[in-house]
Amino acid sequence: MASKLFHTGLLDGQVTIVTGGGSGLGRASALELAACGAEVIVCGRRVEPLEETAARAEGGRGEALACDIREEDQVSELVDHVLDRHGQIDLLVNNAGGQFLTPAEDITPKGFRAVIRLNVEGTWLMTQAVATRAMIPESRGGKIVNVTLSPHHGLPGMAHSSAARAAVENLTRVLSIEWARFGIKLTALAAGPFATDTMITKYPRPVVEGAALSVPLQRLGTEEEFAWLVAFLASPAGDYHSGTILTIDGARDNWFGPWPPLGLTDESGKPLAEERRPDDAAPSGGERQPTPVEQQPTRAERQPTRAERQPTSREQE
To answer: CA-CA distance, 220 to 55, in Å (whole number)?
Structure first.
């Protein structure tokens, strides 16, 4: 299906890899990139959903490859395959990741390591392999988009993922500096709650139902809205974006729930405001009255004190 926003040839000639491209934001991003003309390789652990994504790619510009990004040898084989077939990699979207909802005190060492290994180590293995083999040689350059999470001020129930995503965001900032000399641009997209299959089917029903209510815009994001931002960054319009964390979450990072909050409005629905006393404002049509401090005479206006009349040591000389 053609893109709703961008013209078909926007990304002609580009080769992209999207990890975790078998569902959700990864699939939507892959399909949008293909719709804009890019050759898209989607990878993940399960090949069946990847093949479905590839089959839906516009113009047959999709390819599915099984790869566990936590395994260095598999990552190496993936990058070698793409370079052997296409000769270049212009964009890497590190979308693969995962976590599970649980109180921090119940996270086992194994569970913590599993989340860190997938989100941090997997992202690093893909990033370094693509950069060193396809982007750094001859300073060819390219773009890397890392997908993280919002909100940034704490995500209770996901301490492991919060630590992992913060690590990826700081890695993005550091590499944007170190690899700028090779023409590599890195950006992180911090995604808030989106209406993906994973969101709707994986988490408890109360969590899903309450997610939209936690967003000031009072809705979940759509997969297309995320994919459009990925395509924008992949296009020439994103050539000066690097080292930034772009948050796409309907203002969830700034506030929890709607504004004004429920119960804090007047009868018309307007936010409650402080009642000002008449003397808080300037008299209508007149000048503002001086405050008690302003009414005190200045030193030039008052008579000098005895101490002030004493000559200084310089004057006595």
So the answer is: 27
Strand duo 184-191 + 62-66: pairing: unpaired
Kindly give the interhelix angle for 122-130 and 72-86, rounded to the nearest 10 degrees: 30
Any residues with CB less than 8 A from the CB of 161 and at least 6 apart, and which?
97, 99, 115, 119, 149, 155
Q: Which residue has the tokens 């934001």?
A: 25
What are the residue boundaries of the structural domains of the chain, listed by start?
A: 15-248
Task: Tell me if 60 sits within 8 A of 37, measured CB to CB.
Answer: no
Q: What is d(CA 176, CA 22) in angstroms, rounded to the nearest whole number? A: 28
Q: Is 42 helix (H, G, I), strand (E, B) or coil?
A: strand
CA–CA dist 61, 35 (Å, integer): 8
Long-range CB contacts (< 8 A, 24+ apart) of 297-305? none
Cβ distance 198 to 189 under 8 Å? no
Q: How many CB atoms lie within 10 A of CB 183?
A: 16
Q: What share of the chain is helix, strand, coil (3-state, %, to 5)?
A: 45, 15, 40
Q: What is the pLDDT of residues 279-315, one digit of tens each?
A: 665 555 556 666 555 555 555 555 555 544 444 444 4
Q: Which amino acid is at 149?
A: L
Going from the C-alpha of 234 to that of each of 20, 142, 230, the distances in angstroms are 18, 9, 6
Predicted pLDDT of residue 201:
80
What is the radius of gyration, based on Cα positions, of the chain? 28
Cα–Cα dist 212/76, whole Å: 40
Specify the amino acid at residue 119. N
Alpha carbons 8 and 38: distance in angstroms, whole number: 9
Strand residues in the chain grouped as ranges (E): 15-19, 39-44, 62-66, 91-94, 142-149, 184-191, 244-248
CA 212, CA 204: separation in Å to the nearest integer? 14
* Global confidence as pTM: 0.84
Give me the CATH topology for the region 15-248.
Rossmann fold (3.40.50)
